[in-house]
Specification:
Blueprint (H helix, E strand, L loop, with lengths): L5 H4 L3 H12 L4 H8 L4 E2 H7 L5 H13 L3 E6 L5 E6 L1 H4 L2 H14 L18
Antiparallel strand pairs: 1-3, 2-3
Length: 126
């Protein structure tokens, strides 16, 4: 049996992190995950909670997060049908990352210039 060197068995962390970043890439995914980390949401509630997102883009982002196992979608057999979204146990593992980002923002957020959103649905909040 041939002996493998440590180099052969090493994980390429750059490639692995690229895969991790890809799971959460997209303009809205982190915001969706942050909201779902707090509670279960219905589609309409998410759309209202995220100024600027279109119905189509919210649907696309939710489908991708579900396909990646980061959120679950529950359909209730009612008329009209009710659909709820919640993060999965796998996504709950990102909780410390979300908490670290929140702490970082509390410390440095005021130093970040506010950029107007030029795309998507306009916020109704004045």
């Amino acid at each position: 049996m041939e002996m493998k060197t440590m180099v052969d068995e090493e994980i390429n962390m750059h490639e692995e992190m690229r895969r991790a970043f890809a799971l959460l890439s997209g303009k809205w995914k982190l915001e969706i995950m942050w909201l779902l980390n707090q509670r279960v949401y219905r589609f309409g509630e998410l759309r209202k909670a995220i100024p600027g997102i279109t119905q189509h883009m919210l649907t696309v982002q939710l489908r991708e997060l579900e396909a990646d196992g980061l959120l679950s979608r529950t359909i209730f057999a009612e008329v009209p049908p009710r659909v709820e979204y919640e993060i999965t146990q796998k996504a709950r593992g990102l909780g410390p990352t979300m908490e670290a980002l929140t702490a970082w923002w509390r410390e440095y957020g005021k130093s970040v210039p506010i950029k107007p959103s030029a795309r998507g649905r306009k916020s109704k909040i004045a």
